[in-house]
Amino acid sequence: MTEKAERNNRKMRQGVVVSAAADKTCVVEINIRKPHAVYGKMMTRTTKYHAHDENNLAGVGDVVQIMETRPISKLKRWRLTQIIEKAK
Q1: Residues 65, 49: contact at Cβ < 8 Å?
Q2: Mean pLDDT in the chain?
């Protein structure tokens, strides 16, 4: 983790790249599992984030880490910080 991330206490998420077709952008899908408030059954919530990928390093299927950042475009509010695992 970078010094800047620690100082600003920005949100970090880890997910899988589902699209890398756009230039300098990747779409990251994040699954969050949490129990239902009343019934306690485990539920999965899926969210997609558009992340800025400056060097087009991420490919479909890669496990990546993204960090919250200032608005870069209409949809991009996240930035790719590292690729944890490349797709096989």
Answers
A1: no
A2: 94
